[in-house]
Amino acid sequence: GSAWFLATHGVAEVIYATAAAAAKGKLTISSTSQDFLLAAMDLALPKSKRGQDKRIPSSKVLAQKLIAGGDGVLARAKHHAGEGMHMSEQIYRGNGKLPGVA
Fold it and tell me: What is the pTM of this model?
């Protein structure tokens, strides 16, 4: 089995917590966290538009973009969920479908 859905939702939770810290002005940005922040903001964008932003915006804008990034992660999970939002342990790599889903 795979914990893809669980791990994906965990990533969204980390992004939302980071957005909350940014909104409160309590986020410390370092060279280590900068790559994560840029990637997290990009998760709201189509793949073709990712990687264009190279600067971290102000705290308020950063928080908004991180919330959108977390929403993008959850939208991706929803895309792969089955009927009734069923989230199987497995997703076929070839077609992105859950086992037993046509």
Answer: 0.82
